[in-house]
Protein 1
Amino acid sequence: MENLSAAERRRFRGVIVMFVLSLGSLLQFAFLAKSSEPVTFGFVLDQEWIALHQWVINAKHGSLIFSLIALIGSGLAYWNFRRRTTIRLASGITGFGLLMSFLCWAASGKFIPFTGLLQGALLLSVPLIFGSMAGVLSERSGVINIAIEGQLLAGAFASGVVASLTHSTTFGLLVAPLAGALISLLLATFAIKFSIDQVILGFVLNVLVIGITDFLYKRLLIPYQNTWNSGPILSPIRIPILWKIPILGPIFFNQTIIVYLMYVVVALIHLSLFKTRWGLRTRAIGEHPTAADSVGINVNAMRFRNVIIAGLVAGLGGAYFTVGAVGSFGKEMTAGKGFIALAALIFGRWSPLGAVAAALLFGFADNLQGVLSITGTPIPSEFMLMAPYVATIIAVTGFVGRVRAPAADGVAYHRGESK
């Protein structure tokens, strides 16, 4: 261990954690489990083509098999560590084994709609993905965006009210990004022009949006609910042929327009950030604004524009809560999703695809607790409600290790000063 670098020591600790979790899974879920009733996994939701209708397996046998798969993944991770190659595939195998072992134990004698579980996870990840994309745009530009929660909430409020007044989900979708951009305008103005502490400013903006929406909810939306707070919701759009693909079709290709917009937004941000001149300049002003300024880039103007774009993205994500889900606005209905989106951003190492993967993980944990609470598990419901937040804490503090934000993130830039 003395000859290992700091990064290698973190990877080694990660391998040890995988071994410990795999052994714990083998002991708790396979050897000490009392119930051996069969667990049924369902793979068909609607009228898609059927590759496998359902799978019935003895709970103890399933836990044993998947715990062994997790152990094999841990062994592969150690082998790759010794060869100094990536352990991502091995980590994925270990994680899959641990998850399936847990499901076999927790759902003994129950039915788990596996495809529905994944579909729900994607839906719950939608605002997290939009929020984390907003964070990528802002923080890659050098502006800390704690105000994602407020941008999501503003988008949800605006889209719900406008959709209710116009009876049109289209107008609700159009106005949501504008509401998020308005909050970003305040963030950009005070953070970039007046150099206010960006962390404190973000929290202030969140409190401001919560206060305004709560006031209007009590004074306007509740007394005149039929007019102001009873909007329509989006209907799923089936992509011809693709929606019939077993398992994947219902998950990815039988969704509402806001989910398809999410696919487009993620692809655009990833390609633009790493394949275009705009992306190169954005990364430059987030890493070394002085050098960017020296080659003619207007650092603060570009930061301002990017923060506004981030608000547009987050506001669109806020529309999911109203026109994308329930139609009506509820008090503080974002429920901290903006902060989980920030955690996804950190877990994803300020990368669009990494943030998406983290958001999907958190969305899956959130949906899993709901499904298992309904089916009934040996775990108290209070602990199941903690699952998404525990996953957030573990991801950020345990498995990410040491991550580095963009060098100039949160640092106000004044032309002529050396940073």
Protein 2
Amino acid sequence: MLYNKNKIALVDCNSFYVSCERLFNPSIIKKPVIVLSSNDGCVISRSTEAKILGIKMGEPYFKVKKIIKKNDVKVFSSNYSLYGDISRRVMKTLKQFSPQMEIYSIDEAFLNLSSIRDENLFEHGNKIRKTVLKWTGIPTSIGIATTKTLSKAANHIAKKEQSGIVNLINTKQIDQILKEIEINEVWGVGRQLTKFYIKNGIHTAYQLKNMHNNWIKKNTNVLGSRTAMELKGIPCVSLKEHQEKRKNCCVSRSFGRKVTKLEELSESVTTHCLNAAEKIRSDNQTTKRITVFIRTSPFQKDKNYYANSKDIDLPVRTNDSIELVKQALIALQYIYRKGYKYQKAGIIFSGLNEVDIYKKNLFSSINNEEKRKKLMKAIDYTNIKYGRHALSIAQAGLRKKLNIKRQHSSKIDTACFDFLPTIKIA
């Protein structure tokens, strides 16, 4: 048999954030490296060497400081503008290997390789890895199978293989591989479902595959049934070539230091609101509801915990930054309480939909909607060209950058002129 209907490859960048940092700092190759989340909170990326030391994913930074100091682990603050740019280069490179591709995350993509002969799949996967490494400098692992869930499983094993590729097409080793994958590592099996499966004696992907489908349907849901069917090699989840637009948009961040004043919270909420508005405009969407939320740290010693949120239903759908900020600040004033040390603030836009799905309302001309649209377009164009927040509004303040903790930043940004290296001529 030369061809299979379904041949899905999952290409996953190895320790992506770490690999991006190593790309511009070769001295840390083969050394333990970690990348921290916003405000240097938790570990979100680890090199293989760091994993061997026992540093866990999601571990708070302060808990692993002893391991870091003892083993000279290199630490970097997250640099999302860099990671986003490198990701775009990787995805553009992958696109040439398949007309059908689904970008699953910043460092993962599914490719349809159904046009490739079975006996050429491994060679083709090797060509993909070499090309991505040569053109972008990012190492990858590839899992190839008849379903997306199986390709995920194959990729999980491929990360441990020297070749970096595992091909499950027409192989008798599928069951053996699934026996090596713990149930919590199966794509589509979350924390609560993992607990349920373990309670019922299902500890591996192989055991889930061999459970009767009626039992799974009865005790879980449709998604659980699809996962089990895909492990059996029956395709239930198709490739999504065109990404679905978001239904909600959330922008939030923990503060680098505790915040007590309404003025500082207002600046943070305004900045988050501007970022969210920019995102939904880029998707050609508008919002109908705003949710503003604030909270203190649940781990503070005095146990003086406070968290609250406020929803505002907008009379007219909009993506106008000025109007959205105005409503968000009204919501913030409603929930703000003096005497608390706030750790986090955020904003959620919900009920998102296409700009053109609704016709103009009676107040469009009164509110100068056409002029405001042109203003928003000018702001977005300026910020794309000169960098985010190059053009902002006064309520965002001038101190917002001072409240972001990035003590280990590599200060590399391939999309910003300010970070280009300078050469001094004597």
